[in-house]
């Protein structure tokens, strides 16, 4: 794992073409986000997060796999980031993939011609905490005030509250 990031910093003609394609993709995506009304600072953070995923995965967008996203998501959770942060990052990656595979943009054709591979949507519902919660809802753990009082009274005075009295 120590050499995980070497490929991205070594200079070769192929690396130069890949880095240039990726920069073009990010520039186009950033332009689309700005045109959609996103704040410049927010766009910059999104693009930086996508760059970070490229470095982390040691793969270009046309090389990404669903396993890369699963591993990255698990790594983020291992670092104990908030679930909301994970959702935000996964959502940003999902939206970038949607852009990259949108036939209204040139990325599928350009990547196929240059590298023989095309970008694809690698953020699936199984890696999306929102979709996971919808598929497997959490058990309800809310306790009503009366249940709480009954539990408390049960542990201290035989378990019964007297009628009309909220205290044991």
Question: Kindly, what is the distance between the CA atoms of the first and last residues, rounded to a whole number of angstroms?
Answer: 61 Å
Indicate how many domains the architecture comprises. 1
Q: How do the helices and strands follow one another from N- to C-terminus?
A: HHHHHHHH
Low-confidence spans: 1-9, 135-143, 151-157
**Helical run tally:** 8
Please estimate the helix content: 55-70%
Number of strands: 0
Portion of residues in beta strands equals under 5%
Q: Please state the average pLDDT score.
A: 80
Structural class: mainly alpha
Question: Radius of gyration over alpha carbons?
Answer: 24 Å
Global outline:
globular
Instruction: Describe the largest sheet.
Output: none
What do these coordinates show?
With 168 residues, the chain is mainly alpha-helical. It has one domain. 62% of the residues lie in helices and 0% in strands. The chain has helices at residues 6-9, 13-35, 40-57, 66-78, 83-101, 107-115, 129-135, 145-156. Helix 2 runs antiparallel to helix 6 and helix 3 (40-57) packs across helix 5 (83-101). The longest helix is centred in the N-terminal third of the chain and has 23 residues, at 13-35. The protein is globular, with a radius of gyration of 24 Å. Mean pLDDT is 80; it is low at 1-9, 135-143 and 151-157.
């Amino acid at each position: 794992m120590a050499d995980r990031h070497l490929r991205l910093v070594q200079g070769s003609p192929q690396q130069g073409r890949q880095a240039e394609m990726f920069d073009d993709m990010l520039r186009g995506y950033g332009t689309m986000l700005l045109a959609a009304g996103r704040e410049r600072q927010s766009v910059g953070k999104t693009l930086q997060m996508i760059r970070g995923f490229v470095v982390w995965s040691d793969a270009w967008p046309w090389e990404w796999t669903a396993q890369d996203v699963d591993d990255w998501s698990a790594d983020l959770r291992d670092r104990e980031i908030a679930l909301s942060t994970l959702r935000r990052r996964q959502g940003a990656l999902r939206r970038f993939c949607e852009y990259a595979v949108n036939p209204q943009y040139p990325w599928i054709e350009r990547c196929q011609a240059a590298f023989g591979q095309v970008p694809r949507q690698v953020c699936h519902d199984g890696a999306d905490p929102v979709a996971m919660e919808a598929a497997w809802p959490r058990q309800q753990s809310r306790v009503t005030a009366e249940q709480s009082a009954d539990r408390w009274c049960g542990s201290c005075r035989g378990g019964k509250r007297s009628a009309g009295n909220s205290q044991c």
